[in-house]
Amino acid sequence: MRLEQLRCLVEVAKHHSLSKAAEQMYMTQQAVSLNIKQLEKELDSTLLVRNSKGVILTEAGKETVTFAEQVLLQKNNLTDLLNQLEHRQTEVQEQHIRISSISTVTNIVLPKIIGQINKEQKNVKIRMDMVDTLETVIKSIRNQESDIGLITFNEKELMRIMEEFQGEILLDVLARDEMIGVVNRKHYNGEVDYIRSADCFGPSQLRTIYNITPVEKMRELAQNNHMIVSNDADFHRNMLKYADAIVIMAGFAYEYFFSSKNFIALPVEGIDVPLIHAAIYHKNADSWVEEFVKRIRKEMRMK
User: Fold this and answer.
1) Residues with Cβ within 8 Å of residue 133, at least 6 apart in sequence
2) Which among 87, 106, 138 is the end of a domain?
3) What does the alpha-carbon distance between residue 20 and residue 230 come to, in Å, rounded to a whole number?
């Protein structure tokens, strides 16, 4: 039983709707539904039923919502308490690293790096803000609201981005990458060593996109009823295991999260999208900013 499953159930109970709950949680409706189905399987109980008025709770569902609300409240109380204890125990001047990011791929390596820094420097506090657009990242760096911006973008956009920086911001390339398609080995007949773009965007199979990048064509095609967009690695792994699905993702994400003898990674014909994962920061940034970026680059190139 995971906190995310409990949060999904509470939100659905609040709104009597899977779609509204998904909107509030910034998730896909399919991801919310999958979380609740997994919870029902673990509890061996039906928690939700549909009727003409929407989604309603069963008696088991009502009891589970009451339990979930208590668990989530206790979790928040514990978090607040630990934060207070940590604040009281801090005897040295805290140093803050503020990160603004649109790169879910780059973020894959951050927990390890943040853990290393926290172990070495107890006074360093790292704040991560996920944003929607490249322009938001650049603005936050220019206004010194963030120290480091993490971005993933189409290599063809590089010149436009560099022009926007106007020499005031440095762009540090962390790794080069490409989009790939991943399929379950049992659904792969071995006749071709690539996936046709028509297969990815046609109605014959379920398609998913993990860690979507700023590629307008793919964002438009993601509106197709047969395509699901999500950053939930477990959700896409389950789609690969149990459904006839293709997951389109950055190669780095595959190596880090999905690489398995059960899956096959193939280039996608018609999607020639070289990717760049990069960090941006001010030219006059402190040395610890460059050190942080250096650690990200090293970790990404080890994978």
Assistant:
1) 102
2) 87
3) 16
Query: What's the rounded Cα separation, in Å, for the pair 135 and 2?
Result: 34
Pairing outcome for strands 54-57 and 48-51:
antiparallel
Q: Which domain holds residue 271?
A: 94-303
- Domain end marker among 87, 102, 121: 87
CB atoms within 10 A of CB 292: 24
Regarding pTM above 0.70, the answer is no
Q: Would you give per-residue pLDDT tens digits along the chain (303 residues)?
A: 888 888 888 898 888 888 888 888 888 889 988 989 998 999 898 988 888 778 888 999 899 989 988 888 888 888 888 887 776 655 456 677 889 888 767 777 888 888 888 788 767 778 888 887 778 888 888 888 999 998 888 767 766 776 766 677 888 888 888 888 888 888 777 777 777 655 554 455 566 666 544 344 444 555 555 677 676 778 888 888 887 788 888 888 888 778 888 888 888 776 666 788 889 898 888 888 888 888 888 888 755
Nearby residues of 113 by Cβ (< 8 Å), 6 or more positions away: 292, 295, 296, 299
Total domains, the chain = 2
Q: Are residues 225 and 104 in the same domain?
A: yes
**Any residues with CB less than 8 A from the CB of 106 and at least 6 apart, and which?**
150, 151, 152, 174, 277, 279, 296, 300
* DSSP string over 222-291: TTSTTEEEE--HHHHHHHHHHSSEEEEEEHHHIIIII--TTEEEE-EET---EEEEEEEEETT--HHHHH
